[in-house]
Amino acid sequence: MALSQACMASSYLPCALRATPLLDQKSASLGYSSIALIAVWDYEEYLKEIIELTKQVKTPTGAGYPSSLNTAGKRAIYDNLDKNEGLAMQVDETILFTKEHGWIGHPIKEKKVRNALRRVLNEESLTIAILEIVKLQDEYQ
Length: 141
Hints:
The protein has helices spanning 3-9, 21-30, 34-58, 72-79, 85-98, 107-121, 124-135. By secondary structure, it is mostly helical.
């Protein structure tokens, strides 16, 4: 039975690993089995794709963020302020200037940050929402 027929008959092989008659002839002339060649090629492509996806996760580009929003915290603020870059940067600066060490979970220190945000945002419900988002960001710890 030719290798391609064996692959077609084998239900446990994924479609990407099924051999073709042309590949059978080419790989046989090289002294390799078709399955090994396809598996190696497919695995190399898979690894390249994983590397690209990992790069995108580590440094999200192409997401449409302005260059000034270079941290996850700034992007989270920007996303929740209707894509207002100026206001997001102002909120970021306000938090960094106002927060004290160990501010999260400390009522008086949190109130100080909330009051500073309220002066920038001018809306209580938005201030509370942004404060909760900021508390989840590592850069503002």
